[in-house]
Amino acid sequence: MNKILALSLAASLLPLSAAAANEPAEAPRALGEEASIVFPSDSTIRNWRADRDRGIWVQDRRGDWFYGTFAGICRDIDFAPQIAVDSRGVNRLDRFATILVRGERCPLVSFVTSAPPPSKEGASKEDKKTADAAEDAVAN
What we know:
Keywords: Signal. Pfam families: DUF6491. By secondary structure, the protein is α+β, with helices and mostly antiparallel strands. The protein has one domain (32-139). It contains 3 helices and 8 strands. The strands form 2 sheets. A 6-stranded antiparallel β-sheet has the order 2-3-4-8-7-5, covered by helices on one side. β7 (98-101) and β8 form a beta hairpin. The longest helix has 15 residues, at 125-139. The chain starts with a helix and ends with a helix.
């Protein structure tokens, strides 16, 4: 009995790095898949950024990014200090939700997992190509 206890105590004292090495690595999140954010509110949406008037990147509280494509253009979203979400009572931000910007309704047709948006300052041509390719993939 004492030996078993001693072994279990020794095993529990292993460094965390050794224990973490035995666990499988977390699989990367698939991009471009339809998704949703449950109960969209100030506590579940950490950040957002407009993609001109074509779409919107939204970051949830875990730091994951999503990209929503508008059904048409959404004027003034580039300059809006805040947005609202009309989820029509389902309490979920997904492709059926509408983004409200200064009284204008901007319905979404797609809401997918995404990489972070390109940086505003000095976004390289490669970043723009990547963002356009991701948007084209979502459209098709």
